[in-house]
Amino acid sequence: MPHYQLTYLDLRARGEPIRMMFAIAGVEFEDVRIPVSEWKDNLKDTPFLALPMIEVNGLRFGQSLAILRYLAKEFGLAGPDNLTCAVADSFCDQYADFMNEWKNWHYCNQGYTEGDKDDLYEKEFVPARNKHLPFFEEALRQSSTGWIINTPEVTHADLFIAASIESTMRVVPNHEGFLEGFPLIQAHQKKFFAHPKLQKHLAERPPVHY
Asked: Structural domain of residue 24, as residue ranges?
């Protein structure tokens, strides 16, 4: 078994889907958590001056979705064939597009940049939510299994979307209202977070802001 070392901030955010992947696969890994106040001091040794980064038997690479996809294939959580894997990838990328469309609001809301956070919320976040969430709701409407691409078991698409929604709900002003009008996404969240192999991780993970 390879030795896996994940390095990310002491946050959930982009690192949590990867941690959950290890949990569901039942694979041990070294979870290196860097305090947010020290993140800039730890970038020089990363491939792209960014985190998360994973090291597999001494080989390092970055980009959270690349890491997630690699692990999904290694652990048998990428679907039964390449076509299914590609469809799962497309849903991961779609949620990543959603997050990218409101990054200016997020940075301002967290105090990383200056600006009118209320104005950015209305101009960036609300339209992005209304544009993107219906895609996932419709996919779940067409699914007979409750998983995002109608697979019999969880895939990295379910994992990435559910974990990312959890992080999103921790930063938006109206936490409970974020999924209002999307009952199938709400059901998907409950189904994913009830996964038996995830319970130990959920019980033991440290409390963080997002």
From this structure: 4-76+197-204
